[in-house]
Amino acid sequence: MLASGLRYARRNPNLVFGLFLLFVLLVFSVGGRFVVDVGNADPLSVSPEKPPSWLYPFGTDSQGRDLLAVMVAGTPLTLRIGVIAGVIGLGVGTTLAFVSAFYGGAVDAVIRSIVDISLTVPGLLVLILAAVFLKQGLTVDQMALIVALLAWRWPARTIRAQVLTLRERSWVQVAHMSGVGGLRIIFFELMPNLLPYLAASLVGAVASAILASIGLEALGLGPIDSPTLGMTIYWVIYYAALLHGYWWWWLPPIAIITILFVGLFNLAGGLDEIANPRLRKSV
Amino acid sequence: MRIDYVLKRVGMLLILVWVAATLNFFAPRLTGKDPVKQRLLKQAQVGGYVQKGMDEMAIEYDKKFGLDKPLWEQYTTYVGEMSTLNFGPSIANYPRTVDEIMSDALPWTIILLGTTTAIAFLLGSFLGAVLAWPRSPRFLQYLLPPLLTLSAIPYYLLGLVLLYVLAFRLPLFPSFGGYTPGSLPGFNFAFVVDAVEHAFLPALSIILASLGFWALGMRAMMVTLQGEDSMIFAEAKGLKDSTLFVRYAMRNALLPQTTALALALGEILSGAVLVEVVFGYPGIGSVLYNAIKDFDYYLIQGIVFTIVLSIGFMTLLVDLAYPLLDPRIRYGRS
Question: Which of A148, B199, B285, B297 could connect to B276 by a Cys-Cys bridge, CB 3.0–4.6 Å?
Fold first, then answer.
């Protein structure tokens, strides 16, 4: 079991590398809580604008936050936004995809048009309109709900295509002719075969939800009193940290966001390879 | 190309306009927040100072969109004004209209985005093609991981890093704005050079961050093409390697890239909007950022609506151009 797992890991380095990077972030944000007081992620906790030192390894910002504490507290918050929005997006998208592919006809035409039209819309800008109205006192979870507003589009489109091909397979036809009900076919014949694909879609949805949330937050439309990664970017721009030479302020959030995205992309690529063995490299 | 397909696509665009205008109409009414009153309230909280002309504006807005008229009449006026791109006065910059502010900013964004998207698309596609070609130099393979990493970083964060390295550490490029303050925008040589210098870093961050996306798509397409009968036949005929590469592989692989272009336009634009904020570039993104800070709802709305519309329009153009590029595609009744 272990040996075959290792052999598989060698064949799918994307998956391993992605999991590794996400694991690093997990260790950082869980382990960090034992090292640093997360309460120092609030403004006015420590003396402001100090470069990295033994006491504050990541330095402090203009409002008196300990930036190590901000990163330790903020990384899980940003992930939380992504996961909530991603799960909702995948759920709604998958439901739409199944309804559309299974019932066909007019239902399919309507859903397909909605998805196609909405896909041409620049997501971030529409989310801006939604966020502007809720500007005051947004919480992290509300932020996730806003981002989830548009997270269903890609899953709906891609999963519909998958269901359409699966539906024609012989074992599904056999189940159908044996009089198995629609829901049973969906959950017992289609879903198990779609699982790796759904997992890859989920990772993709989480990544784009995080991207959207950071974009909104950088514009100042996020949970203003939470130390998420995007809000840190917002404060960096707001206080012109670059101009003042506070490199320790913007470097950690950018590094963590980069690790996060590279990790998620690799993971999605690795899962894609499981879902679609034809992608497997011959070398 | 069938005429019913064209009509269907144009119809989809019209639906998009209608849905966007309808949402814009109902959002303030559903949340019960009147943007003008909101702004007045905010100013009253800050201090006694009330922006001159606010009352006039409220009256003008009321007259135009008539809150005293029945709802359906308000709605039809509103959708009419929206679809002729008439967004009324800006709240924070009254009496300037949203249209005036946008037409000042749009050329900056269009030039920056048009150039960078074209460069990234061509360069990325070429890189991807070379990466997939079996007879390319081996060292090129090492380009792939950095390209992938760069494409994982959001545009504006890459912009922050470039700004620090190439404008503050090594003062090679100007750090802020679209031109040197004090110089008069105009079409003369000195100003164009100045503007290009200022646009260089924002452009570089957009190009670097989007290069990987195009390279990857092209690479995947080239790999699948290599097993095609036409390729094997062309090789068997003894055609030159360069002919195979350009005329047989690249030409066919570029087609799906065009579809990707239509789908990616919205995302590219969203990323570029934030790049402008980072660089203080005088385009539509910076205007949007300031509008959000000032809670200038009509300006925000105007910008979002215009961009949604133009992306929809460009997608339509790409879709309609596609069958002209690829004779195999014949949109018909399915």
Answer: B285
